[in-house]
Amino acid sequence: MDERRSVKAAWTVRYALLNVAYFAAFCTIHAYAAVFLLDRGFTNTQVGVLLALANVISAVIQPVIAGIIDKGGWLSNRRFILISVLTIMAGSLLLMIRGLGMAAVFIIYVIIYMIQFAYQPVMTALCFEYQKMGCDIWYGLARGLGSAGFAVTAALIGGAVEKNGVFILLVVNVIAMAVSAAAVMMFKRPVNSGISRAPGREDAADVRGGFIDFFRNYPAFAVFLIAVVCFFFSHNMINDFMISIIRELGGGERELGYANFLQAILELPVMAGIGVILKRISSRNLLLVSGTAFFVKILIMLFAVNMAGLFLSQSIQLFAYAVFIPASAYYVSSTMRESDQVKGQAFITSAITIGGVFSNLVSGAVLDHFGVHTMLLCGSIVCLAGVLTGFFAMLKLPGVSQKSDRV
């Protein structure tokens, strides 16, 4: 038993290290995207267009990448992650070049932003692949520690940016990608695993199945995806333009770091303990809780008059994003036929991405022309529409299979 625990701990540490490094870079690349790009001379509208373009490309290439990996050729989950981190490292080094034109910065940042989104689901697939080979990984804890990595980075990077400028963001990217490369190299296929192909390939034909049939089988899920788009419209609005919101309230980069630390560190206990929570509350109801929390979060932000109000809003992350991510994954895996689960997870990811695209396109322009309050009002209205749609979908429509959505 002790030997088994030590083996589980070893694999969990490897996967946790990969998550910590990933989300440390996620903080600098995504949470500080506006800070970096505004410093390089971009307007809020241009920032929104850049992030929207990166999200659109990411949404398009993710299923393509999954299809290539599923074919079982040279490109594996492990190799794609390694290629991704080396590309992000190279891009960060290029951005360090002084005098780089705005067009070059635009292209490089789109590539970096897009690739990091693209390899996030591949990291999850890597975990499931090695679990199937007998490597016991505590996914919830490792993912929660990833959020803690984001939190610690956010707490430190705000002051560092104020003191040293946005160049420090690129330095952190390079270090995080070096750690990621080292972590993924530690994932070696166990001897006598008995698995010759990555999990999910037996479902490759199902992924190519008809979308109409899928949504006909799961109408509640199909409508709920509209709610997800609305939730993440508001979620991305806050995250991508947080620096503008904070400056409106009298803060700066240091307060941005504290705000991101607060919301990220709260994700750790929820994600690590989601198995216990699901024994008491169904994943369907947890999704409704999280959707309501997304609305409460942006509503508090809308009426905030100082940094205390903003920090209160960020604390609602405990019930919003921290609940949504594991609850949505479990809802799909526990209420859909096995042959439909790959499509279900993919549609969740696509809805999140689409929400980000609309948010990027709308938020930057509204912010430039009408200000922070109008932008947050717009996000609140969209999120409320998502809450109403979510309750209608989950409580009024059929679409759950004969399986239970409770642990």
Would you kindly provide a written description of the structure presented here, covering whatever features stand out?
By secondary structure, this protein is mainly alpha-helical. The protein folds into two domains: 1-187, Growth Hormone, Chain: A, CATH 1.20.1250.20; 202-407, Up-down Bundle (Growth Hormone, Chain: A). 79% of the residues lie in helices and 0% in strands. It contains 19 helices and no strands. The chain is globular and about 50 Å long. The two termini are 25 Å apart. Residues 195-209 and 400-404 have low confidence and may be disordered.
Give a brief description.
This protein is mainly alpha-helical. The protein has helices spanning 2-31, 33-39, 44-70, 77-95, 102-132, 139-164, 167-185, 204-207, 211-217, 219-240, 242-248, 253-265, 267-272, 274-278, 283-303, 307-315, 321-335, 341-370, 372-396. The protein contains 19 helices and no strands.
What are its keywords?
407 residues, mainly alpha, Growth Hormone, Chain: A, 19 helices, 0% strand, globular
* SSE pattern: HHHHHHHHHHHHHHHHHHH
State the total count of DSSP E strands. 0
Number of domains: 2
Measured distance between first and last alpha carbons: 25 Å
Assign the CATH class of the largest domain: Mainly Alpha
Residues in helices, as a percent range: over 70%
CATH superfamily of the largest domain: MFS general substrate transporter like domains
Low-pLDDT sequence parts: 195-209, 400-404
Q: Please compute the radius of gyration using only Cα atoms.
A: 21 Å
CATH fold assignment of the largest domain: Growth Hormone, Chain: A
> Which structural class fits the helix and strand makeup?
mainly alpha
Largest sheet: none
- The CATH architecture term of the largest domain is Up-down Bundle
Q: Rough shape?
A: globular
Strand content: under 5%
Count up the helices. 19
Question: What is the average per-residue confidence, as pLDDT, rounded to a whole number?
Answer: 83
